[in-house]
Each structure stands twice: as structure tokens, then as C-alpha cells.
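Thread: quick sanity check before group meeting

JM: Hey all, I'm pulling together slides for Thursday and realized we never actually wrote out the predicted structure for the chain we discussed last week. Dropping the sequence here so it's in one place. If anyone has concerns about the input, flag it before I start.
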Amino acid sequence: MSGRNGPVLQARGLERVHPGAGGDVTALRGVDLEVRAGELLAVTGPSGSGKTTLLHCLAGLDDPDRGTVLVRGVALSDLPTHERARHAAVVLQSGNLLGVLSAVENVEVPLLLAGTSPRRARPLALAALDRVGLAARAGHRPAALSGGEQQRVAIARALAAEPAVLVADEPTASLDAARAAAVADLLAELPRAGVAVVVATHDPAVAARADRRVALSDGRVTAATP
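JM (edit): ok, ran it. Output follows.
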């Protein structure tokens, strides 16, 4: 499937430097990357290699100091923050769910903040939860959900805006083997619906499901597997 269409995500010459008390830290050094619709790309590499910074740039959570991220030909840096999730959505390692809200409300909130009407946001949120197999758990708060279910809610929240690209940062890191496998299976299924998925991972089971793998080291792409 990954070969049918042109790239939906393009990163060109990404450079990012983080200021620090002990001196600046260069996290990305001229990274180039392309991902096609219907493709799962795994980004691997040791801790401190730049994976999280790269994913934050790809999702528009952070702007590179140099270089450009294009999604569907649109530069994310040209978009206001609230519009970026419609192009690229992110799933963080912790899931970042709000404990006082139900699963469906957690999925719904970003839609409402982006200007979706409440009448439309609730059906979209329920459909996203159904897509990840959690329709029956829509009314449960995070404390009543397993770690794997919480990550699936986070994925549903990212999918609800129907982004072209879903970016996931170590989504299985805090899960046991069985729950990690379920999340990995879900991420592998998403490209079949045409979503481009980029996942940073230390988990070989997640990387094994990818269509392609790239390795980062010291902020550079050092290896790629077709």
C-alpha cells in the first residue's frame, strides 16, 4: 500500500537545538524523512538520539530551528497551533488523559477546542473509540481503564480529527507484554485505512510490524530499512 501514493509527510533538513544550563544541546542535525499514506514507519535509536524531538517536530508540537515539515504539502509552521492536529496528531508515552473526564470526553475535548460543535464532536469521539475497540468503555474514566485501554483512548483522541499523519512516541513503553502487543497491533492496522503512522520505539515487536525503519543516532539518520 505504501508505494501507491506520494509522500503525505516530508521533513526536510530538520535542525533543532535545545538551550540548557550546561550549554546548548543539538537534538536534530539535518534530518530528512518521507512517509506515505498507508505506511507505518518506525523510528529507532538509543535514548538521547533525538527521537522525541523529531516526533514533536513532525506533529507540530515544536518548530525546528531550521528545515520544514510538510503534511499534504502544507508547512506545519505556517498553521496556527489549533489547526496542526488536523494534519498531524500525536500520541505520547503517558497518554496524557484527563482523570476527571470519561474516555469519550477525553477524545471530545480537542475537537471542541478546535471549533467543532458539541453536536458533531460527540459522534466523532464515539466513532473514534469504536475504531479502537473501546465503544463499550466510553463512559469510563482513566482510573477504571487498563494501561493499554488508556493508550487506545489516546490513539482514538488523535484519530478523531482525521489527521493525515499519526505520530506516536514510545506508545508501548509503560505497558506489559500483552497490552503492548495489542497497541502494536492497532498501530499496524491504521495504515490500512490510509493513515500514515510514525512511531518512535525501543520495542522490537513494534518495529517488526513497520513497513520501514529508520535509526537515529546523535540527531542524524544513520540507517534505513526498506
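AS: nice. The first strand starts at residue 7 and ends at 18. DSSP finds seven helices and ten strands in the chain.
JM: adding both to the slides.
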